[in-house]
Specification:
The structure is a single chain. The chain is an alpha/beta fold. The protein has 4 domains: 139 residues, no CATH class; 117 residues, no CATH class; 91 residues, no CATH class; 132 residues, no CATH class. The chain contains 21 helices and 9 strands. The strands form 3 sheets. The chain has a 5-stranded mixed sheet. Strands 6-7 form a two-stranded antiparallel ribbon. Strands 8-9 form a two-stranded antiparallel ribbon. Helix 2 packs parallel to helix 4. It is globular.
Amino acid sequence: MRDIRDVKIADLLVDQANYRLPPQANQRDAIREMVRDQKRKLTVLGLDILTHGLSPSELLLASESTDQPGKFVVYEGNRRVTALKVMESPELALGLPTEQAFKRLGEQFKAKPIRSVDVCVVPDRETAMFWIQRRHTTGHNGAGVEGWGAMAQDRHDRDHDRPARRAIMAMELLEDGSDEWRRVSTRLEPRTTTVDRVLDMPYFEATLGVHFDTQEVVIEFENKDQQAGEDLLRRILTEMADPIFKFERVETADDRRTFIDSFSSYSVKKKDPPPADADTSASDSAHEGKGDATTAAGAPDANSGQTGTGTQTTNSGSGAGSPTGSGESSGTTSGAGSASDTGSSTGSSTSGGRGTRKRKDPLQRDTLAPTKQPYLLRVSGLRMSKLYEECKALKVDKHRNAAAVLMRVFLELSTDQFIKIKGLPVPTGMAQNGKSWDDVKLKPKIEAVTAALDPRKVDRGLDSARSAGADFIHGIPTLHRYVHGLDYVPEPSELKATWERWHPYLHRLHETINPL
């Protein structure tokens, strides 16, 4: 029978031989070393305990001290006990990086102190270690705690209104219960981040015609051929699950484009019917000032080098049908999806005996931010304006690291500017804990701004902002690596694509605070 006791915090001793740390000489040293080792994670744990209490599913595990009668040495739960003791006596963190944070937590702890906790008391350390091994190590043929795999984590995230990951969506679509696919899926699970690096590329959708709706969790194939689309995805995922597949094959953006191109013969892009007058070329029609020029789906765009879907129409004459009378007409050249998400372009055509001119694909530029309409932002404020000018001037090929950091700074300060001007309240839970916006990280800030811009979640252009917490090409984890990743070298093409994904968010944000 289990021996569960209500034990005072003061009677609990942290384990001076805790495997997380080197052996410690006394209780004070053991507590301070845990604070030093865990850093911010321990303050987060402390705040979580104050907010939600201790988990009823994970009792502390301890045995009676042989040296100090009436005391209990904790073997499982040392982080929780340390957090409680330091919140009760913040001076234990004196001189350590989290000293101020624990002082603030200490004030909250006084308002609702926790004086005792339930503890499962075992005879000795050896008995405790039998169970602790099952808690903190993997394996044991299923007898221990099994952590969630990538698919389980993704299903949990979807249930909590977070966008699905493309790799997991594809794996679930292809699940057929066969042993063969089970082997592929098992090998892919630890590689899902690598798979996402391929599937998240705008080039993937533009080249192969596969569209992922991560909000509705739907995969659509441009030519509507479900069987061919699934066959394409199966070939790609099976290739990446092969034991001899190396990450180096998809390490850079160029590597990933080459890998994607290797499957182009299985593309499910929609094929438009040929022009009615197949004997007359588009360029001849435009040059002579008569007829229409049509670019078939999947055909290379002569101006941008991108693959286009849709039609490009040229008006002849002196501007008939043009709203401006200048001979310009509106047309669209699209890779797939929105310009912000995939790098597709919305263009203009002009004729007059000099051929066809289309608006340039926003990804086909050498600066971090686009420099022409309709992709300009309406930015105000002395510093924000200067930062934006630098974003439009900085050449990503020559200054990729500076561009990466600048983009991260511009995104956060734009978010801060909106919060300040609109007077957004600090999220309830954080406000109750005495936090200001200065204490809030970027992800909750973006969530608050996105909710203010689109409370009903009807603007699909903000999907990239809503998925910012995920480890996507534009995600906050990637933005953090731009600043803190010692070995992370951003690709210029990825930086421009990342700006495109954030463009709808930045556009709506600055349009809202700077209306005409």
